[in-house]
Amino acid sequence: MHSKRGLPVALNYYRVDEELWKNPDKLLQLSSLALRSAQREKTQIKIRSLRLKELPNLSLNIEVMLREVGINDPQTLQLLGAKRSWLKLRSTRKNGRY
């Protein structure tokens, strides 16, 4: 634990003792595993946190409209494709919702 402004902060660091410093092959292996794990975690967090409005050319208004027709995330939008997504939006407009 690390203290920042008087509050404890958890850090994702590993302590390297003298024995590990003396074994560079093991140190490199563990460092490589830690790096790959951190990169996977970062990618997963980025995927989960990506909102529709963060995609190019999509505003908050379009995100709201897409959510109303059941398109809640970028993966669903990509799966449906632009044409089917647009047709879903268009059909709700014809029904008087927009």
Automatic annotation (TrEMBL):
Matching InterPro entries: TfoX-like, TfoX_C
Domain TfoX C-terminal positions: 51-94
SUPFAM superfamilies: YgaC/TfoX-N like
Pfam families: TfoX_C
Segments crossing the lipid bilayer: none
Gene3D superfamilies in the cross-refs: 5' to 3' exonuclease, C-terminal subdomain
Name listed for the protein in its UniProt record: Regulator of competence-specific genes
